[in-house]
Amino acid sequence: MIEATPDIRPLLAVLVSFVAAFLIVASYRSPNVREGWTLVASLAKFGIVASMLPAVLDGAVFEWSAGAFLPGIGAPIEFALRADALGMLFAFLASGLWIITSFYSIGYMRGLDEPNQTRYFAAFAVSLAATMGIAFAGNLVTIFVFYEILSIATYPLVAHDETAEARSAGRKYLAYTMFGGGVLVLAGTALVYLLAGNVNFTAGGIAELANADPGLAMLAFFLLAIGFGVKAGIMPLHQWLPEAMVAPTPVSGLLHAVAVVKSGAFGVSRVVLDVFGPELVYNLSLPFGFTAGLVLSTIGAITLTAASLIALRKDHLKRRLAYSTISQLSYIILGLGLFGWYGLVGALLHIPAHAFMKLTLFFCAGNIHVSTHTDYISQMAGIGKRMPLTMGAFTIASLGMAGIPLLAGFVSKYYMLIGGVRMGMNFTPVAYYLVGALLLSGVLNIAYFWPVIYTAFFEAEDAHDAKPLVDFPLGGESRSIVAATDGGRGDDHAATDGGHKDDESESDDDEESADDVDDIVADAGDADDSPSDAEGVDESDIPDADLDDLPTDEEGVVRPDFAASERDFSEPAERVDTGDYAVDQRPSDADVPFGPGRGGERGETADADEADRAVDDARASDAPQRDAEDDAHDADTHGDDHHHGGPPAGGWEHIAGLDALRGRESTWFTLGPILASMTLAVLLGVIPYEMGFLELIELIVDTRLPEGVVRP
Q1: Backbone φ and ψ of 58, nearest 5°
Q2: pLDDT at 161 (0 to 100)
Q3: pLDDT reported for residue 526
Q4: Nearest in space to 346 (alpha carbons), one of 408, 428, 257, 253
Q5: What region, left, alpha or beta, does residue 137 occupy, with left being phi > 0 and alpha being psi -120 to 50 degrees?
Q6: What does the alpha-carbon distance between residue 627 and residue 436 come to, in Å, rounded to a whole number?
Q7: Burial category of 578 from C-beta neighbours within 10 Å (exposed 0-12, middle 13-18, buried 19 and up)
Q8: pLDDT for residue 548
């Protein structure tokens, strides 16, 4: 075991954002000062972590301890922070990306004029403090404490909108991660302490566990792996993650693509590498020739395949990205179960690779929402000409997620594929099935990302082919998503019901109604010319009107009124909700027109008529057919009087590349972080070793595998 050097920097890395949270709250009256503290804290945290990196790459370990606080049957348990190579991998990644996300948060929150921004930035700072505690935790008890703090700190971020849906998502998040995963981690920690008398992280595993009862050791392993795996979104314990997409996009980006979900994957990494060790995980046998490691990899393979298939059906962009996250995190879980150098290197390298790519994708989704209020893929036809830089970055990150060469996703998946093949050749043929799952998932990645790219760049908004894999009938359907000039949508029926079977019958009814009116007008015209014929008109043919009541223009010519009631054509048409029309159940990141924080702008209480208009507008918007799991929610709680997805009347504005660089596409507070994270994803795919991540990962794996299985 490497001798640790006492150092206070691991503690400072945790405390700096705790202090920043207090300063942010104290500066609530001055947004510029408040956000300045956020940026200063993120830079300070990254500087502290980066200052330890060169020495850690040389094999040093820095440790700070508050002393023993839990004496027991074995070694005393300390509250210790330990900056080793594995912890540095996670801390360096999360602290660096906090800087990018802080700039993005400023542009996003101000762009939508979100309420409760002080609480948002303070909770964000506390969440990063907990993340550093997880990264630098020296034992299972310390990581458990910060694991639970992270769950509590991120609840206000998930429930930020304070709608019934947001609060429900927050409660589900706590139920799964704190009361579910946290309890399992605590139980596993207690069992490890009973078996080994020690819970300190040790490179290669705690030696005493190798001599413990295999059945109890197996139980302890799965309690810990599943407990941490809840935050990593392993199926069937994943449902909190799609629900949490109701949070603002910066939360979805950093906390649900880097800090929160990665803390789960990192926890599983600690269990495999520093509690049980890769060799013991492979040797713990189960019936039918399976080992603990193969079971872990099988869970990952099932999750990544199933989540990819579900992602194919999601029309809401953030929900598609949420299931993509579940799938991609399972690559890490799968790789950790591959006994061998290549498999473990690929698993750990996928932690930063996925972070850079998924952060780019979430940032793009948020930028689209801020700039166009568009959340659904079926409303994005032609949006590439309106947001060329954003959709270009989205395309590059999507290709990386699919494993295209020269991008970050290719390198990590390449290592895992080699690891699976070598494990199949040298240890067990079951590993070949894992290789097949990796290849299948790559194909599915292309299947659920390509429609987004194709829709954005290669389809016109006035002749959009609604794809069958996003809640539309097999074969798709041609439709227009351009807003009508009267404030409604062109092709009101077809564009709102997502391809219901009633479309054809409704169209026929409309044609019949038009023919009837034409006949009436013709008869009325004849009546004017020949008064004697007027007596022969059967007034029963004229619906809801007498002949004399037909509307005429200034010259006396009959002009039929096609509206059944008076309507102001400057406003969207009213729609009766018969249950056939989709309602935007999930206005992700919506600028909620009610609740705390709106008193100064909209009055202390919302006017009932204004709320009704907001609901009507939400119903009149061109929302695709909602997901099945959304049906139980009440649409009336999510009215947004400015939330209209899709292009405006006349189609998207065309913004050239140079104009986009000048800031016409969106603010650089959001566009800059998008391009920065995309660049990191490219660099990690081209020069992974020079960026420091691959060098750090090789050091981690070399010190945790037995001598016979070290680097080939």
Answers
A1: -85, 5
A2: 81
A3: 52
A4: 408
A5: beta
A6: 30
A7: exposed
A8: 53
Long-range contacts of 680-684, Cβ-Cβ distance < 8 Å, separation of 24 or more: 680/356, 680/408, 681/353, 681/356, 681/357, 681/360, 681/396, 681/397, 681/400, 681/407, 681/408, 681/409, 682/396, 682/400, 682/406, 682/407, 682/408, 684/352, 684/353, 684/356, 684/408, 684/411
The Cα–Cα gap between 678 and 692 comes to 18
Closest CA to 249 of 160, 381, 357: 160
H/E stretch holding 140 reads helix 140-158
**Could you give the CA distance from residue 448 to residue 220 in angstroms, rounded to a whole number?**
37
Q: Could you tell me the sign of the dihedral formed by the alpha carbons of 637, 638, 639, 641, in that order?
A: positive
Give CA–CA dist 10/171, Å, rounded.
Answer: 32
Q: What angle do CA 585, 587, 590 make, to 5 degrees?
A: 145
Which residues, given as ranges, of the chain have pLDDT below 50? 487-488, 491-514, 517-518, 520-521, 524-525, 527-537, 539, 542-547, 562-565, 567-643
Give the total residue count for the chain: 712
Structure-token match 């059944």, residue found: 564
Contact 354, 706 (CB under 8 A): no
Buried b (16+ CB within 10 A) or exposed e, 59-68: ebbbbbbeee
609: left (phi over 0), alpha (psi -120 to 50) or beta: alpha
How many Å is the maximal CA-CA distance in the chain? 113
Q: Hey, which bits of 453-575 come out as E strands?
A: 464-466, 477-479
The rounded distance, in Å, linking the Cα atoms of 235 and 330 is 9
Could you tell me which residues are beta bridge partners of residue 62?
Answer: 5, 83
Helices and strands of the chain, counted as H and E runs: 26, 5
Q: By the 8 A CB rule, do 10 and 82 touch?
A: yes
H or E stretch at 67:
strand 62-70
- Measured CA to CA in angstroms, residue 665 lies from 280, 389, 660 at distances of 54, 8, 5
Q: Which residue has the tokens 């206070």?
A: 8
Q: Phi/psi at 291 (nearest 5 deg)?
A: -115, 170
Identify the pLDDT of residue 615. Answer: 41
State the Cα–Cα distance between residues 538 and 545, nearest whole angstrom. 12
> Is the CB of residue 250 less than 8 Å from the CB of residue 366?
yes
Write out pLDDT tens, residues 111-164: 777 788 889 899 989 999 999 999 999 999 999 999 999 989 988 888 888 888
d(CA 252, CA 229): 18
**What is the Cα gyration radius of the chain?**
29
What residues does 63 pair with on adjacent strands?
6, 82
83 membership: H or E segment, kind and range: strand 77-83
Beta strands at 77-83 and 464-466: parallel, antiparallel or unpaired: unpaired
Q: What does the DSSP 8-state code read for residue 564?
A: S
Q: 454-479 in b/e burial notation, b at 16+ Cβ within 10 A?
A: ebbbebbbbebbbbebbbbeeeebeb
Of 245, 293, 289, 302, nearest in space to 268 by CA: 293
b or e along 40-57 (b: 16 or more beta carbons within 10 Å of the residue's beta carbon)?
ebbebbbebbeebbeebe
d(C-alpha 404, C-alpha 441), whole Å: 13
C-alpha 61/C-alpha 649 separation (Å) is 61
User: Which residue in this structure is represented by tokens 């979100």?
Assistant: 114
